[in-house]
Design brief:
This protein is an alpha/beta fold and about 260 residues long. Helices cover about 50% and strands about 20% of the residues. The chain has a domain at about 5-185: Alpha-Beta Complex (2-enoyl-CoA Hydratase, Chain A, domain 1), CATH 3.90.226.10. About 40% of the residues are buried.
Amino acid sequence: MSTEVSYTQQGHIGYIRFASDDGINLLSVPIMASLEARLDEIEQSPNLRVLIITGEGRTFIAGADIDEMARASGDEGRAFSQRGQRFMNRLAHFKHAVTIAAINGSALGGGFELALACDLRVMAENALIGFPEVSLGLIPGWGGTQRAFALIGPARVRRMLLTGERINAKTAFEIGLANECVPLDQLMIRAEALAKGILANGPSAVRLAKHVLCAHEAAWLERGFAGEAECFGKAFINEESREGLRAFLEKRTPSWAASLG
């Protein structure tokens, strides 16, 4: 099922919502292009100051579109990573508004990377986040390794990347990946309350505060992004990732021995 992207605005607050017929929202290259077009449109709104991004159904964004990845040739891996990084950087450096990810359900892989690219994250208690890419013979490739490292440091990021474990909202809040952990029925209420707290402040001051933070991050993140894209490309061209992606689509356990030849 394809994922739809909608946008609405109420006063100074805008809302981007992901939705699909089966409730499992996926992030693909066409969806990234659609989101970029939305951001272009939003920049034309003089009144917008806060942008809340959320999902409908069981997921925020369950992850990247595995079928799309499996159909890509192995040598497209680095370009695929760089394409995703460009979009995530566009979102992270979005000058027009403060961005809040209201994480209603699972945000895994690319979905987690999108949430990390937002300024703030509010998680529903039922939500899960994580980097399951190693279970596919891959690594995160859209900036997630670097942004997670910036938030929680090397020890915790190593555990997430090497085990592929999923983290619940309570733990995410405790270690600094989420700003708030709330019951699902309070998710949008709390996200909007956070938005209103931002709106109570000077608009120029808020934008300048975001600018200086983004400028500081960009100074050291760029090199890390280049290394991430290179390593993602190496993983993507490997038979191991081909086996991992096939196994996921065929709903079976990967045979890593087979991928090693």
